[in-house]
Amino acid sequence: MPRVVVTGLGTVSALGPDTASFWRALVAGESGIGPLDGELAGKTSVAVGAQARGYDPFQHFDVKHLDLLDRFSQFALLAAREAARDAGLRFDGERGERTAVVMGTGVAGKTTEDEAFRQLYGHDQKRFSPFIIPRTMANAATSQITMDLGITGPSFTVSTACSSANHAIGLALGMVRSGLVEAALAGGSEAPFSLGLMRGWEGVRVLAPDTCRPFSRDRKGLVLGEGGAVVVLEAEERARARGARIYGEVAGFGMSSDAGHITQPSESGAVRAMEAALRDAGMSLEEVGYINAHGTGTLANDITETQAIHRVFGPHAARLAVSSTKSLHGHALGAAGALELVATLLALREGLLPPTANFLGPGEGCDLDYVPLQAREARVGAALSNSFAFGGLNAVLCVRRWE
Amino acid sequence: MDSNLVQKVIEIIAKTQHLDAARITLDSSFEELGIDSLDGVNILFAMENEFDIVIPDEAAKEIRNVRHTVEGVAKLLDAKASGAGG
């Protein structure tokens, strides 16, 4: 089975328009969380979010193209363009046919849909633009990437709420390993800041009113984020042959289903996904030095995830660094796993672990090393990146440092 | 042909297509303006909104240039006027 490496990164988030700004803010511990912007401010009890504040779509797309691009597709396109550029790849001819695009999203074009339905139900609008359907469909972002870059290989979208991006990347990993394709652009994107969705999240009562403090005492819940991230996965042999820069190896992927509760996390589900990822990578527990946690900042997730890490790693858990970068880029739902994989790859490559921001001291039942507040220099050989979705669908990626 | 209507139709096409209205004449085809089938449907959507008419799906398939659009809209506006009068 060929090894699969990452040769390109692309990121758009509350921390900035590209991967360089993302990484700079992560290691500086500068959170992108702030009061919700004008349109949403004060409309619901949702007070804060990690929004891409300086983002101006007109800087990146012409007006006609934007007619067809919901915000979640815009983020996906920008991340994919950056990743392809970073990898130094073009997709003419056969190279395009031997490349896949697999993207995750939780809510896809619901921001567009929300506005259209407001016009329908609120103002009895008699007709809709023909662009509503192609903007809102879940595969819109994946399709736009294939069109933009000329990628003609097997492409599709997966949707598993907060695990979407990890599932997408894991499936793309399998496609490259099997030889179905030589390379894949994989990741996720999300743009969840619509009034309807804010009202929905308000109803779940899991959002923090102040900020996101994973694993911390006085943590009050998660903070939603938006953005997109894409990685270029490539068969090692081809990457070496063309002299590509290699960020790291995606060495394993593990999935599980809780078959429990639609929102409550499950320790055993998380354990089985982490164990499956390690098994798939053929990795010993001792090799792992860092976990980019799911770490949402909710009461339930952080205790359950801590217990699950103990169960998987036993005594070695005490030697692990575990941080949640959601404290910095927010919980970007279907994009989360992709943003966090970029963070994890760069952490291993740079020997610098991004911190858990806003940490006030360990919460009850949270007794691991969460890399509080400040980035830490550490030479780490391998890491896990966890995603545990609403609906109990878990997806864990296992990453190895590239020597 | 009502020149005000022609002008209005051209303005709507220009706006929805993000084109300079000066580029569009009564004899322009959608093809030469770079208007694909989905854009064409979007133009009909804009016409329906602007003139408060309903363009039947069958008629919509025939509309491939500016002249067709103006003629189609004129016919529906006439029908609307006589409907309202009767």
| Number of helices in the DSSP assignment of chain B | 4
Q: Based on CA inertia axes, which overall geometry of chain B fits?
A: globular
Structural class by helix and strand composition of chain B: mainly alpha
What is Rg of chain B?
Answer: 12 Å
Percentage of residues in helical conformation of chain B: 55-70%
| Intertermini distance of chain B | 24 Å
Order of helices and strands of chain A: EHEEHHHEHHHEHEHEHEHEHEHHEEEE
* Main pleated-sheet profile of chain A: 10 strands, mixed
Radius of gyration of chain A: 20 Å
Strand order of the largest sheet of chain A: 5-4-6-7-1-8-14-13-9-10
Q: Give the structural class of chain A.
A: alpha/beta
Overall outline of chain A: globular
SSE string of chain B, helices as H and strands as E: HHHH
Instruction: Tell me which oligomeric state these chains represent.
Output: heterodimer
Strand content of chain A: 15-25%
Largest interface: A-B, 10 and 8 residues
- Tell me what portion of residues of chain B adopts beta-strand conformation: under 5%
Question: For the terminal residues of chain A, how far apart are their CA atoms?
Answer: 19 Å
The amount of helix of chain A comes to 25-40%
- Average pLDDT of chain A: 97
Largest sheet of chain B: none
Q: Can you tell me about this structure?
A:
The complex is a heterodimer of chains A (403) and B (86). Chain A contains 14 helices and 14 strands. With 403 residues, chain A is of the alpha/beta class. Chain A is globular, with a radius of gyration of 20 Å. Chain B is mostly helical. Chain B contains four helices and no strands. The two termini of chain B are 24 Å apart.
What's the quick description here?
Chain A has helices at 19-28, 63-66, 71-87, 93-97, 110-123, 132-136, 140-149, 164-178, 195-204, 236-241, 267-281, 299-313, 326-329, 336-350, and strands at residues 4-13, 34-35, 48-49, 99-104, 155-158, 183-190, 227-235, 248-257, 288-292, 321-323, 352-353, 376-377, 382-388, 393-400. Chain A is an alpha/beta fold and 403 residues long.
